[in-house]
Amino acid sequence: MFLLVILALAHCSSANDAVENDLNQARTTGALDFTVQVCSSLGKCQPLATGLVVDNNWRGVYYNLCYDPKRCDKIPTVSEYQTLFGLTVSPSRTHLNLTYVANAPGPRIYLTTGPGTNSYQMVYLLNRELSFDVDLSTVGCGLNAAFFFVAMEADGGTKRYGYKGPVYGTGYCDAQLASTNKPTCHELDIIESNSLTTLLATHTCNASQYCEPTGCGFMPYPLGQTKFYGRGRTFSVDTTKPFTVVTRFVTVDGKDTGNLKEIQRFYKQNGRIIPNPTVGGNFNSVSDAYCRYYGLNNLGGLSASMTQGLKKGMVLTMGLWGDLKNPDFMGWLDKPPYGPCPVYSNPNPRVTYGNIKYGPIGSTA
């Protein structure tokens, strides 16, 4: 009996230590442990230890933890990442789960080089392929599950602006108009989606670093492919189930140093490969010709301008944002003519991104 009590106490102490270590992980290292796969050929991928941090603006605006990027001094614990921002990582560290939190909707989550470092993970996509799994089955009208890249500085603006750096989630930039503590930069939206509609878009910039807020996007629904992506088995991509998004960045000469020629897309679900739909003009990818044909903004040209952002390296950003109380909030994404909303909502939306891989074309899927 005495031995059983001793063993029980030891087990309890060990469990408490594990919980304490877990709670302190992010506080002491600045990031949540996360793993992506870097591939060399199909079936040959190696895990890369990385980290996840939340944008300093969300820490500051909603919780007064880090509003000034030059004076951040608070790093959330793992528990706070979950309770304050709705962010958890799977035990395998390969999947990010984001639950909509009404008190702080839409935090941006950035990929870093790993816990204990103060650098973002720079991803180079020219002549490369990117794939990831996503489950956005509960993401309804008025919300946007976004998986995208921005040309942030690897040091989070430490050298240029005196910011505290990636440990504190500083340095964000995008192609929207500049604002306080947010410059403009190249932006690449792999998906801006909910379970009703999806968008792939490039946002290029000119030499003066003026960037396109609207960009050049491929969006099946307004291009006439209303049955390609949506809720249920009648759609080519059934968003009530998880699926894989595969994106290829083809260069003009097939080399890593070449300029971008086009961005190709296909999906995988239930063992099927689902090609991107072909739309007017016989296009099924994003290219300079596609952007010109549809008269979409393409400042500087996809091949010339987007290439510069991709050569610099870009930072993976993930999020779930919008207004749960207002199904019209994301009208530019999901209301006619861009989508069928408002037709579906869920009071407890969440999105899961996982099995993120990148490598040479043909190596990830």
Keywords for this entry:
17-stranded mixed β-sheet, alpha+beta, about 375 residues
The total beta strand count reads 19
CATH structural class: Mainly Beta
Determine the N-to-C terminus distance.
55 Å
| Beta fraction | 25-35%
Number of helices: 7
Average predicted local confidence, pLDDT? 89
Bin the helical content. Answer: 10-25%
Reading the helices and strands in chain order gives: HEEHHEEEEEEHEEEEEEEEEHHEHE
Question: What Rg do the Cα atoms give?
Answer: 21 Å
Give the uncertain stretches in residue-range form.
1-25
Major sheet characteristics: 17 strands, mixed
Shape: globular
GO molecular function: cellulose 1,4-beta-cellobiosidase activity
InterPro entries: ConA-like_dom_sf, Glyco_hydro_7, Glyco_hydro_7_sf
Catalytic activity: Hydrolysis of (1->4)-beta-D-glucosidic linkages in cellulose and cellotetraose, releasing cellobiose from the non-reducing ends of the chains
Protein name: cellulose 1,4-beta-cellobiosidase (non-reducing end)
In short:
The chain has 365 residues and is of the alpha+beta class.
Q: What would your notes on this structure say?
A:
This is cellulose 1,4-beta-cellobiosidase (non-reducing end). Keywords: Carbohydrate metabolism, Cellulose degradation, Glycosidase, Hydrolase, Polysaccharide degradation, Signal. It comes from Daphnia magna. The chain is of the alpha+beta class. It has one domain: Distorted Sandwich (1,4-Beta-D-Glucan Cellobiohydrolase I, Chain A), CATH 2.70.100. 19% of the residues lie in helices and 32% in strands. The chain has seven helices and 19 strands. The strands form two sheets. It has a 17-stranded mixed sheet that branches. It has a two-stranded parallel ribbon with strand order 12-13. The longest helix is centred in the N-terminal third of the chain and has 28 residues. The relative contact order is 0.19. The N terminus is likely disordered.
